[in-house]
UniProtKB/TrEMBL annotation:
InterPro entries, per database record: HET
Transmembrane intervals: none
Natural source organism: Amylocarpus encephaloides
One family name in Pfam for this protein: HET
Protein name per the record: Heterokaryon incompatibility domain-containing protein
Heterokaryon incompatibility domain span: 2-50
Amino acid sequence: KLGIRYLWNDALCIIQDHAEDRNRELVKMHETYSGAAINILASSARNASGALYG
């Protein structure tokens, strides 16, 4: 357990196929992630639906 109360998943929290919403949120990403205790990301995948670890 990480003991972290909140999880932010930009793929779920930002309406990805709504350009106006996505663009509005993208300019604020530095604020969201700069306050994070940890950041977990996929550094590579075959596509957006690909597995995180191969």
